[in-house]
Specification:
By secondary structure, this protein is of the alpha/beta class. The protein contains 13 helices and five strands. It is extended and about 85 Å long.
Length: 363
C-alpha cells in the first residue's frame, strides 16, 4: 500500500517562536492572526493537523494552508494578502500637504488652530477623510496642553535628590511627600442633582453657594501610599508647623524622616528652619521651582478632588471636612503606593527634547 506524500518539515527558530508566542497571547492583534500563530506553534510541536483543526474548531484544510504559507514565507506568510479595491482618490502628495498645513500653518481667518471643517474647506478633501488622516497620524489640533520650564538654578541637583529618594529610599527612614491643598471650597449646589441613568450622565447645577474654605494638609508615605491629613482654616507657617509636629508624633522614633516639599515660602519660614534644625532625624528635600509634578502627594490631591470633592454638595465647611476625613479613612484601608519608574536621566532627556523644540531656549 503506497504512502502519502510526506509533509514538509516545520522547524522554528528561537526568534520565530518568541514572535509567534507574542502573536498568540496578544489581545490587540486581529483574532485571525493569533489563531494562525497557535496553528504554527502546535504544528511545530508535533501535533497533527487534524487534532489542531478539531481543537481550534476550523477545517483541516485551513491548518494545512497556513502551515504551507508559513513554510514558504515564514512570519510574513501569516498575514492576509492585500485585496484589490478602488484606487485611492487622495494621493501621497495631497496627504503630505494636509499634514504640513496642520503642523506649520494657521487658518487665514485668525483662528489659532485648524478644525476638521476648516481643513476640509482649505484642501478640498472631505471632512471624513481629514478626520481619518488626523487619527491616522495622531494629529489633535483642537487640543492643547500646558507646561512650565523650571528656572531653578539647582534644578538638576534637586531633581536627582528627589528622584533618588523615590527609586532608592534610605534604610531605617520614612520618605514622605508633604503639601497643602489650599482653598478647598464648601460649595452647595443651588438645586438637587440629576442621578446617572441609562443613556445619560450625572448632572449637577453650574451655580452654587459658597460656605467657606479649608486647607487640606497631607503627608503621603511613599513606601505604602498611606496618607496623614489634617484640615486647617489657614495655611500659614503656624499651621504647617503644627502639621509637622503631628507627623513627628506619628512616625516611630527610631526612623529618620525625609520630607519632600515644594518651595512655598511657608515651608522655608525661619520658625520652620529652627524647628527642623533642632530635630536631627528630619531631612527636608525641596522640589525645583515650577515642578510640583515631582511631589507625589499632588497625585493624591487629584484623586480626592475627583472622587470626593468636585461633584459633591456641602452645606458647611464642617461637612466638607467630615467628607474628606471619611474618604481618607477609606482610602487608607486599601491604599497602594504610586509607582515611580522615571530616572533623573530619562526626565532630563525628555526636557532636552522639549527645549530643543522651543525657539530661544538653546541646547
Amino acid at each position: 500500500m503506497g504512502m502519502g506524500r510526506p509533509k514538509a518539515e516545520l522547524v522554528l527558530t528561537d526568534e520565530e517562536r518568541a514572535q509567534l508566542l507574542s502573536f498568540a497571547r496578544s489581545r490587540s492583534l486581529p483574532a485571525a492572526l493569533s489563531s494562525r500563530a497557535h496553528m504554527i506553534l502546535s504544528s511545530a510541536d508535533g501535533e497533527a493537523s487534524k487534532s489542531i483543526a478539531q481543537r481550534l474548531k476550523i477545517s483541516q484544510a485551513t491548518v494545512g494552508k497556513w502551515r504551507a504559507r508559513f513554510i514558504a514565507y515564514r512570519i510574513g506568510g501569516l498575514y492576509d494578502d492585500v485585496r484589490p479595491g478602488a484606487p485611492r482618490s487622495i494621493d501621497d502628495e495631497r496627504v503630505a500637504q494636509l499634514i504640513n498645513m496642520t503642523l506649520h500653518t494657521k487658518p487665514a481667518d485668525g483662528a489659532t488652530h485648524w478644525s476638521v471643517r476648516a481643513m476640509a474647506a482649505e484642501t478640498g478633501i472631505s471632512k471624513s477623510s481629514v478626520q481619518r488622516y488626523f487619527q491616522l497620524f495622531g494629529l489633535q489640533p483642537h487640543r492643547c496642553e500646558t507646561f512650565k520650564l523650571s528656572t531653578d538654578p539647582f534644578f538638576i541637583e534637586k531633581l536627582r535628590d528627589v528622584v533618588g529618594l523615590y527609586l532608592d529610599p534610605p534604610d531605617k527612614a520614612l520618605v514622605i511627600c508633604v503639601d497643602e491643598k489650599t482653598q478647598c471650597q464648601a460649595l452647595e449646589r443651588t438645586q438637587p442633582g440629576l442621578p446617572m441613568g441609562l443613556g445619560h450622565v450625572q448632572s449637577i447645577t453650574h451655580d452654587y453657594v459658597r460656605h467657606g474654605t479649608t486647607t487640606l494638609f497631607a503627608a503621603l508615605n511613599v513606601l505604602n501610599g498611606a496618607v496623614l491629613t489634617r484640615c486647617k482654616p489657614r495655611h500659614r507657617h503656624q499651621e504647617f508647623l503644627a502639621f509637622l509636629r503631628e507627623i513627628d508624633d506619628a512616625v516611630p522614633a527610631e526612623l529618620d524622616i525625609h520630607c519632600i516639599v515644594d518651595n512655598y515660602s511657608t515651608h522655608n519660614h525661619p520658625t520652620i528652619k529652627t524647628w527642623i534644625a533642632q530635630r536631627p532625624r528630619w531631612h527636608m528635600h525641596f522640589t525645583p521651582t515650577y515642578s510640583s509634578w515631582l511631589n507625589q502627594v499632588e497625585r493624591f490631591f487629584a484623586v480626592i478632588t475627583d472622587k470626593a470633592i468636585r461633584r459633591d454638595s456641602f452645606t458647611s465647611v464642617s461637612q466638607l471636612i467630615e467628607r474628606i476625613d471619611q474618604f481618607v479613612a477609606s482610602y487608607n484601608t486599601h491604599c497602594q503606593p504610586f509607582r515611580w519608574t522615571a530616572t533623573a536621566e530619562s526626565i532630563l532627556e525628555k526636557l532636552h527634547r522639549l527645549c530643543s523644540r522651543i525657539s530661544g531656549t538653546g541646547h
